[in-house]
Every structure is written in structure tokens, then in C-alpha cells.
Amino acid sequence: MPEAIPFPMRQECPPGACVCERDALLRDPQGDTRILRLTREEEKKLIHHIDTISSYADLRKLGERMQAQLGVALDITPSARGVRTVRGFTIALAERPGLCRKTRQTVPAAVRKCLERNPEIVYAILNERDLLGQG
Q: Which superkingdom (predicted)?
């Protein structure tokens, strides 16, 4: 077991309820434990923050902060077959040890709701990828 983690850590999931590999991450002396900072309380704050996003710039900034502070990447990818609704996007957190199954579901669901409330963010994502034929 590595040295004591110098921050409050996410509580362990019940056995068999998650496939986060938390214990293996804690045993790995080279393991990136930043994701364990995302306690349930911090996850609630993150979801609330996602709920308040109103621009593509804010969404990008959130993704950058998640990468820097937690070591996890948020990926929002439009379908190659086209996007008619927000359901045409694949929204996921990159797989990594220590990332709870529930978090892998709740964060993308919150981002999807954010996109549904803010169609201008959807258009910005599509424009960035040149799916509307502009730019």
C-alpha cells in the first residue's frame, strides 16, 4: 500500500457493485490517484456545475479542469451518420482505474441534459467538427 493519500478519498463501493479497480489503483505506487478526489459530495458539486453551464467555452473549460484536477477526459463526439438530436452524440468519460461506474453514468447524463437545454452548445460542437459545412 502506498503512502497515505493526502486528501479526502471517495468511499469504496460495495463489493461487486463497481468495476473501478480502486484497490488496484491504491496498490500501484505509480498510480494516478487524482480521480479518488471525486468524493460523492464533490461529484454532486460537479453535476451542479454542469447544470449551470450555458456556453461551449464553459463546457470546454470544465473538460480541461476535469483533466487537470482529476486526470479524466470528457469526450463528446457527434455520430458520423449525423446528429438530429442530442442523442446523436456519444458522451463519455475516458476509462481509467478509480473511476466509479456511477460517475461514468451520471456525468455524461448531466452533460446530455446541459446540451438539451443549450442548443447553441450543440451547434458549436458541430461547427468545431465542421459537420454543418461551415468554417
A: Bacteria
Residue 15 has pLDDT above 60, yes or no: yes
Percent of the chain with pLDDT over 70: 87
- How do residues 95-134 score in pLDDT, each as one tens digit? 889 999 899 999 999 999 999 999 999 889 888 876 444 4
Q: Exposed, middle or buried, 121 (CB in 10 Å: 0-12/13-18/19+)?
A: buried
Tell me whether residue 9 is in a domain. no
Residue 117: inside a domain, yes or no? Answer: yes
Within a domain: 108: yes
Whether residue 71 contacts residue 41, with contact meaning beta carbons closer than 8 Å, is answered with no
The domain of 27 spans 22-128
Instruction: Report the mean per-residue pLDDT for the chain.
Output: 85
| Residue type at position 118 | N
Q: Please classify residue 87 by burial: count the beta carbons closer than 10 Å to its beta carbon, then call 0-12 exposed, 13-18 middle and 19+ buried.
A: exposed
